[in-house]
Specification:
With 296 residues, the protein is mainly alpha-helical. The chain is built from 17 helices and no strands.
């Protein structure tokens, strides 16, 4: 077995919870039954409780308090609820680690990832009118999931990666290749494939750092990648090693400006002007997911 196989098949990281997989499979059906999905989620009381806690968080600002999964689906739609169920399941599975001292790193990782999800949706709203998909949020939440899989697989090895980034100024993927022989990009794509997250999510995992290499639509990976850069520059980072004077230097910015005259005209301030509020929303999202938020 290769190292990549070992990482993606590591203990509980190998599969999604059965309830989550059933919900995602059902949502692929055009004739999906709302009541059936609600019943499946509600059979797992812990999952149902966490989903309702998230949908009622300030991040979603629902007009009325949601008290049932059926009501959540009707008010929020299938797409948003699917992403919330997936977020809750993955977050619950990856937050806790047996290794001493890892919680600080996990806090830092999820702070960056959740912030990137929120900012990625802002980026999406600047480059197109149909900005109500939730895929940007999920892309931001999962774009570096390979890092946390590597971290949980071998904590001490990943700490060496962090040292290379901090002391030698290497970017994350290069430092990972030096230590592990592969990067979080490779791991992320394999995890997305194993979990059947779809081609769009695999594209984010593989190309959020280098969207210009994609032959097809570059907007989603570039939006998530730009959000990741912006969050890192404003203190919500997870050791990416990238050093830029301005986000206009980022490859993702240049790619998006080619497809969006609106973004090019507005300039980087269109993304960063409310960054403090977005980071606050990220904290609220983490509180809803975890129930409490340790200091990162």
């Amino acid at each position: 077995m290769s190292l990549l196989d070992n990482i993606i098949n590591y203990k509980e990281l190998a599969t999604l919870p059965s309830v989550t997989k059933r919900v995602m499979d059902l949502l692929q059906d055009d004739d999906v039954d709302v009541r059936r999905i609600a019943r499946i989620i509600e059979r797992d009381p812990v999952l149902a409780f966490k989903v309702l806690r998230v949908v009622n968080s300030p991040v979603f600002a629902t007009p009325t308090r949601i008290t049932s999964i059926h009501q959540a689906i009707m008010l929020m739609g299938f797409s948003r609820l699917t992403n919330i169920v997936l977020s809750v399941s993955i977050f619950s599975r990856f937050w806790f680690a047996k290794h001493k001292g890892v919680e600080r790193l996990m806090n830092k990782f999820w702070w960056h990832s959740s912030s990137a999800g929120i900012v990625a949706k802002v980026v999406g709203s600047k480059i197109r009118e149909d900005s109500h998909r939730e895929i940007e949020v999920m892309g931001g939440l999962l774009h570096q999931i390979g890092k946390v899989a590597m971290l949980q697989y071998n904590v001490e090895q990943y700490k060496k990666v962090i040292q290379l980034i901090l002391k030698e100024g290497m970017i994350d993927s290069m430092a990972e290749k030096k230590v592990f022989g592969l990067s979080h990009l490779n791991v992320g794509v394999e995890m997305a494939t194993k979990w059947r997250l779809g081609d769009e999510m695999k594209s984010v995992m593989a190309y959020y750092q280098t969207p210009s290499k994609i032959s097809g639509n570059k907007d989603l990976p570039a939006s998530v990648g730009l959000a990741s850069v912006v969050c890192a520059q404003h203190g919500a980072d997870f050791y990416n090693g990238l050093r830029l004077n301005s986000i206009t230097e980022a490859e993702q910015w240049k790619v998006l400006c080619e497809s969006s005259e609106n973004l090019k005209t507005q300039g980087p301030n269109a993304i960063t002007e409310n960054i403090s509020q977005h980071l606050k929303e990220s904290a609220q999202y983490l509180i809803a997911l975890k129930g409490n938020l340790a200091s990162a």
